[in-house]
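tokens incoming
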């Protein structure tokens, strides 16, 4: 989940932070809860091939199980996006980490597909709750004069968790006994520690409006609609690749590369999410007029590398393509949110950010299912080539649109 979304929401809700709330231990508790919750969302990636063998389901089913998580995130943010403003940061952080622990427990005790679907939905809700509450809490705790910005710290916790979750699960699955149980025991224990840390951290928000359930509205103001569409399509293309990598990398490593271990799967996904975080930092050094074309060029390059990796069975090209996609996706996300926050009317920012987020997570889920269908029809390698070509075409379309708009402006 892109951390800047939550950062924007936190800034809108809390305004300029005043005095910091809580010291080092409290700050660590919030960061750790954020990190372990996001780690739990990607941990199943390295384990999907094992679940397929255990429960006897095909690659298509894996993509559906993955997509259910994205649906949980979207519904959670639309329904509970304002919850930490209404009831406080600590109760929402406790709920998020408890849901993360519950998802790990369901995975630990799973004996069939229904349990996997339930665990992924619960995991999606945990991610939806923790992102806004944790980032807002970090903003309030650090204060305006902190050496480390809350957005940077939240980026570390968010993307760091996404990157480390699948790597941790892969390493444990390879080295520890009971590969479908040990990772979840470890994650359940860490999530339990996070719950205790958040309980001891105290509340950081002095203002609470009271609970009133309602959906977060969607919409984009007319003055940024064209730029919003380009940014969301570019970032969405990158998210589609991240989703497919998360869903089927284990299958590629096992069936094409014939590697029996699961750490390699974790490393590929780790590289993708770590570079997504790096791209979100890198966009700050790029001019707005340059950022999106660079992102589109990176997406086209990444699609070519991943498509070639699928065709040739090259692990090196898969790593390179994953890293390139992460960088390009991070830049596109940063550019899109920059457009919303600097050019959109303040009264429409919340709806615009929610819409941007809904597009990204829809692109995370739907293409993954489409690739699952293609795998059933054509096999893994042809499906990877077709998907890569579609991503490259979408990024190229955005790039050509930018060129045409530049010429008209000139």
């Amino acid at each position: 989940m892109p951390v800047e979304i939550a950062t924007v929401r936190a800034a809108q809700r809390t305004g300029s932070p005043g005095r910091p709330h809580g010291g080092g231990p409290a700050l660590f508790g919030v960061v750790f809860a954020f990190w372990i919750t996001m780690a739990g969302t990607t941990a199943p990636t390295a384990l999907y091939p094992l679940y397929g063998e255990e429960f006897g389901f095909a690659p298509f089913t894996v993509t559906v199980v993955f997509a259910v998580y994205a649906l949980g995130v979207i519904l959670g943010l639309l329904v509970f996006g304002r919850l930490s403003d209404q009831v406080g940061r600590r109760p929402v952080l406790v709920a998020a980490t408890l849901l993360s622990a519950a998802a790990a427990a369901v995975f630990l005790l799973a004996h069939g597909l229904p349990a996997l679907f339930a665990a992924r939905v619960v995991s999606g809700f945990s991610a939806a709750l923790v992102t806004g509450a944790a980032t807002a809490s970090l903003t309030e705790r650090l204060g305006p004069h902190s050496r480390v910005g809350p957005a940077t710290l939240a980026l570390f916790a968010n993307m760091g968790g996404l990157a480390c979750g699948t790597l941790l699960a892969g390493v444990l699955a390879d080295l520890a006994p009971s590969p479908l149980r040990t990772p979840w025991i470890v994650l359940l224990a860490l999530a339990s520690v996070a719950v205790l840390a958040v309980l001891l951290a105290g509340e950081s928000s002095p203002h609470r409006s009271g609970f009133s359930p309602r959906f977060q509205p969607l919409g984009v103001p007319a003055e940024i609609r064209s730029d919003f569409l380009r940014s969301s399509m570019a970032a969405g293309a990158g998210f589609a690749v991240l989703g497919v990598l998360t869903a089927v990398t284990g299958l590629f490593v096992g069936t094409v590369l014939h590697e029996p271990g699961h750490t390699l799967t974790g490393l590929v996904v780790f590289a993708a999410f770590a570079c997504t975080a790096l791209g979100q930092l890198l966009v700050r050094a790029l001019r707005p007029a340059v950022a999106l074309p660079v992102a589109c060029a990176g997406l086209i390059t990444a699609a070519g590398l991943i498509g070639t990796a699928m065709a040739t069975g090259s692990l090196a090209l898969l790593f390179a393509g994953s890293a390139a996609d992460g960088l390009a996706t991070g830049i596109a996300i940063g550019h899109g949110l920059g457009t919303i926050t600097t050019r959109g009317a303040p009264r429409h920012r919340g709806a615009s950010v929610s819409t941007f987020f809904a597009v990204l997570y829809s692109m995370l889920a739907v293409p993954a299912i489409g690739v699952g269908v293609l795998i059933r029809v054509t096999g893994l390698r042809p499906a990877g080539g077709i998907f890569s070509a579609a991503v490259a075409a979408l990024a190229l379309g955005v790039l050509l649109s930018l060129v045409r708009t530049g010429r008209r402006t000139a």
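note: Residues 1-19 have pLDDT under 50 and may be disordered.
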